[in-house]
Amino acid sequence: MARPGTAPATMRAVSQDSAGAPDVLKIVETRRPEPGRGEILVRVHAAGVNPADWKTRQRGVLDGTPAPFTLGFDVSGVVEETGDGVTLFQPGDEVFGMPRFPHPAGAYAEYVTAPARHFAPRPRGLTHVESAALPLASLTAWQALVDTADVGPGQRVLVHAAAGGVGHVAVQIAKARGARVIGTASAGKHELLRSLGVDELVDYRTQDFAEAVRDVDVVLDPLGGAHCARSLRTLRRGGRLVSLLPPDDTFPYEEAEAAGVRAGFMLVEPDQQGLREITRLVEGGRLRVIADAVFPLEDAAASHTLGETGRTTGKIVLSVAS
User: Fold this and answer.
1) Domain range enclosing 125
2) What own/partner pairs with CB < 8 Å and gap ≥ 24 does 265-268 have?
3) Rounded to whole angstroms, how far apart are CA atoms 199 and 181?
4) Residue 312: inside a domain, yes or no?
5) pTM value surpassing 0.85
6) Which residues pair with 121 in a beta bridge?
7) Exposure of 251 in the CB half-sphere (CA atoms within 13 A)
8) Cβ proximity of 10 and 29 under 8 Å
9) Are 142 and 121 in the same domain?
10) Which of 10, 54, 84, 237 is the most buried (most CB within 10 A)?
11) Rounded to the nearest 5 degrees, what angle is found at the Cα of 195, between the Cα atoms of 191 and 196?
């Protein structure tokens, strides 16, 4: 039997009617969604902001559907209602997750619905803002480094954009797996990355990582383009390059094969077990998340403006409910 709550019939959400600059993002009053069978309704307390969001805003198309739509995938909040068949959660439970990705989740809103198993209990000791910064970045890093590359003790792992949303989590996951971690980042972020456990640092503004780094087992590349081909030079034979951006015509499949390197693209998926593994690291003191900037929901446009500078450390988060 479904467990109803007391949620209002309408809610505030951020919507866009067309492709464009950040100012196309507007607050609207819209109908609150209803949880279907196997789903939960979550009152959103905070929503993460990701590069996928501002790239989608620029295109004006989400999962093949043109605007209007509501962006956002990262959620931390409280279960308000449960649909038929849900046994994992009940109203009042605090949860976090990356629901429905890569299909629309509509996290820039006061409420979201999604399958219950797209969520996990919120990590103890984290605020909703910190929890909302985790799901997409941490699941991406976990699925790339653990599920795809099977990083283990003694391996050498190169993480590009190591101070970014995915990067700063990835370096900690690699360290927790016993790897030696090399990170690329501007010099001003090196002190932070050392505090997160990075063993070697390359200032991409003054050094060529493809010359400075050799014999790594795994490269995690969230940047794509020329970085992929140049990263092959850092890998030992038998190593693995995991790209987080869809490959284009320049992706170096043939070069990788000639070098004896496995190279490919990985798309993150909703994953409750992965969220639970991330939670164990957080609660065990082996992973901390950095929320670089927090904006209220009505300032979603400003959050995108900041994100598009490419100069943030960690994640940007929208605070939705107090």
Assistant:
1) 10-134+289-319
2) 266/140, 266/143, 266/144, 266/148, 266/242, 267/102, 268/98, 268/101, 268/136, 268/139, 268/140, 268/143
3) 5
4) yes
5) yes
6) 95
7) 17
8) yes
9) no
10) 54
11) 120
